[in-house]
Amino acid sequence: MTDKHIPDDTILYLNGVSVSFDGFKAINGLSLVLKEGELRAVIGPNGAGKSTMMDIITGKTRPDVGDVYFKGEIDLTQHDEADIANLGIGRKFQKPSVIETLTVWENLELALAGNRTPLQSLFFKLTKENHKQLTDMAAYINLDDQKETVAGDISHGQKQWLEIGMLLLQEPEVLLVDEPAAGMTDEETFKTADLLRDVAKSRSVIVVEHDMEFVKALDCKVTVLHEGSVLSEGTLDAVQNDEQVIEVYLGR
Ligand SMILES: Nc1ncnc2c1ncn2[C@@H]1O[C@H](COP(=O)(O)OP(=O)(O)OP(=O)(O)O)[C@@H](O)[C@H]1O
């Protein structure tokens, strides 16, 4: 147990986190509390520290100082990237990393096998239950009709959904999603917002995004980062009307 007073329903707890690169403070006293089952959008101008924050949560970057706790008692600064993924924090990078020469179904199958040890996955055979799991997931991510299509032939938006589906098969408790709507059509953007809102009914989700229409569709609490710390937090309306946020975005 930690001596920090972290509320029971907190899944991620960042407090006073800072990290410098060559003397430049990319993250500067950052504090953020994410509740179980919460969907949170993180916005902020280029260089605000959004990716670095995700890197710290997932163990890619070690903070110089500060607390980073998962589920109240797991000190994430003491774990490496592989450990943190296994603990239940999944991350989707901006660029989809599906295997383009495999079908949608095969990509999903691979993600399911990925939950096993290398030896187990070598001999992995789909059970009836696994088959249903993959069929349900394909439908859930709007790819029911594309199951047999090679991933290289589906749209950019569909690739993003496929990757979200692959991550969900690993059943993370927290899903971190980096700019999912970039390069999507309007229809795909809104479907993605629907999907992530639904995902957040059974786990916690942080979405980093620039597209304000998408953030509006997510309909959740918004955190604005600037120069490595939280500038404002609240509803999208509240942060968009915050004088400090207006100044940072519009340079007034
Ligand atoms: N490994 C690194 N070495 C040096 N500087 C870095 C490193 N990683 C990030 N930075 C710097 O830290 C700052 C924050 O970068 P970060 O990528 O986290 O911002 P961001 O909010 O994700 O920006 P964007 O919206 O452009 O992706 C930037 O000034 C960046 O140049």
TrEMBL record:
GO terms for molecular function: ATP binding. PROSITE patterns: ABC_TRANSPORTER_2. Residues 12-252 form the ABC transporter domain. Keywords: ATP-binding, Nucleotide-binding, Transport. SUPFAM superfamilies: P-loop containing nucleoside triphosphate hydrolases (SSF52540). The keyword Transmembrane helix does not apply. The keyword Ribonucleoprotein does not apply. InterPro entries: AAA+_ATPase (IPR003593), ABC_AA/LPS_Transport (IPR051120), ABC_transporter-like_ATP-bd (IPR003439), ABC_transptr_urea_ATP-bd_UrtD (IPR017781), BCA_ABC_TP_C (IPR032823), P-loop_NTPase (IPR027417). This is Urea ABC transporter ATP-binding protein UrtD. It comes from Litoribacillus peritrichatus. The lineage of its organism: Bacteria, Pseudomonadati, Pseudomonadota, Gammaproteobacteria, Oceanospirillales.
